[in-house]
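=== RUN LOG ===
request id: a7f3
mode: sequence -> structure
chains: 1
length: 119
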Amino acid sequence: MPLVNIMINQRAYTVACDDGEEEHLRELAKHVDAKARELLETVGQVGDTRLLLMAALLIADEYLDAKARLEARSRELSELSTAHSIVQSRVGGSEDSAVATLEAATKRLGDIAARLSDA
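=== RESULT ===
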């Protein structure tokens, strides 16, 4: 299991991860560090524990907001899919009706033509 050195709020941490996850872990650490630096600019130095807690809460808030937006888009997509299915079935029904009407008209024209040729 590889060990990765990361920096958050100018402090070094060594974290273990699965093989192949090293770069992903570094990206996550960069994100946490960026949030910590954002907080430092607004609230100042409040201690590592409190700073990391506040950063984690901000990241959790962003995550939950993104998750809610994704769920809303998923519901919209489901509604659009349902509406599409309804339209498709109506169009299919309209096509069937048009074909039946044309077939009936063709039959009547054939009957009229037969009567005219007999006359």
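=== NOTES ===
The radius of gyration is 34 Å.
The chain has a mean pLDDT of 89.
=== END ===
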